[in-house]
Amino acid sequence: MARESTLRFGAQTDEVTSLLRIVNLVRTGEATTRPEIGRVTGLGRGVVTQRVDQAIEMGFLADGEYGPSSGGRAPRTLRFRSEQGRIVVCALGALHIRVGIASLDGDIIDHSHQEWDIARGPAETIEKALEMLDEIVERHPDVPVWGVAVGVPGPVDFESGRPVAPPIMPGWNGFDVRRRFEQRFDAPTWVDNDVNLLVFSERARRQEDSLDLIFCKVGSGIGAGLLSRGRIHRGANGAAGDIGHVRVRDSDAQCRCGKVGCLEAEAGGWALIRDAERAVDEGAGGALARHVDGGSEVTPEAIAVAAMDGDALAISLIQRSARLVGESIAALVNMFNPAVIVVGGAVSSAGEVFLAEIRQRVYELSLPLATRDLSIVRSLGDEKEPLRGGAEMVREQLFDATFPRWFADGRPTLSEVMAAS
């Protein structure tokens, strides 16, 4: 009990500090043998052995395989026990739900996807997401949930986990998204904008600690996530990167947010559908027009595919969207000076037809110094990206932000972790 009281609530004794550091060194792969830990930390051999034994006893570390020998006896490697807990991820989009579970090292173990309209409201949507998650969790029993990530397609107050006036989410404003997931899984839950989850995924894939990056998602709506020196920039109230509702010059298009002239109302996927149907009504021809006349559903993906196949109407819609998006991104480039811009979302699946126009506008309108080393690329487009990003967000919160508070318990507790948030 005395040891527990010294470890609890982040008491920064030398023992606690070194123990925490050793677990994180092994977890991140920076040091995976006892001799390596000694060299990195400067701790003596006896102290390292004692701390490692403590970490093994607490359930954080385990002995692994033998490492390469440097002349003497081969050292035994250590591994972080990523299998001891699970991370639950729910990524809500405008027209779909993606859910999954991950190990504590961020690997997606199982996942599921279903088409769904977010406008059906929070109660029905969250109930469906929980049903999907229950099915997955039941396939992997007897492993506790350590944390939950929820992504939503709108601005979020990260501290409270509540959406704030989300334009395409009627009924969600101020809704306590976090509560239902905490009740179901008895685990700390974090809610963030869906594009931020994609930023977390990119950061993990690139493994660059101080990366400056913009992820611009052009799907049904438009949004951006900002990574500054390796850290997510959410802004004072969670609205950073909401470029879908910046004003487009000379536009009088009505936006779903209730305002007029928003970028999303001119260049978002739903706007492209509107303009495609209008053009067909006015007599436009081609493959996309036949698609519309045939009664098939028009989607941003269908327009992107038609553009890649050379349809003139689809190309004109995609290129105009890209030019307008590129102008907004150029303003961000001048202010933010990123090293990388990643473009994703359904509309961007048109590939170079879309990306070339964005590049042209960004390089035309941005300062030469801001674009000197700038890379503009498409995202991988993997449907598991938001799930990986959600797992990374939880890992950051558990092991970077709150680890000292729950370390002595051997696993995170809802009361301690959320009290630290």
TrEMBL record:
Protein name: Putative NBD/HSP70 family sugar kinase
Species of origin: Agromyces ramosus
Keywords: Kinase, Transferase
Family: Belongs to the ROK (NagC/XylR) family.
Sequence intervals crossing the membrane: none
Pfam families registered for this protein in UniProt: ROK
Recorded GO MF terms: kinase activity
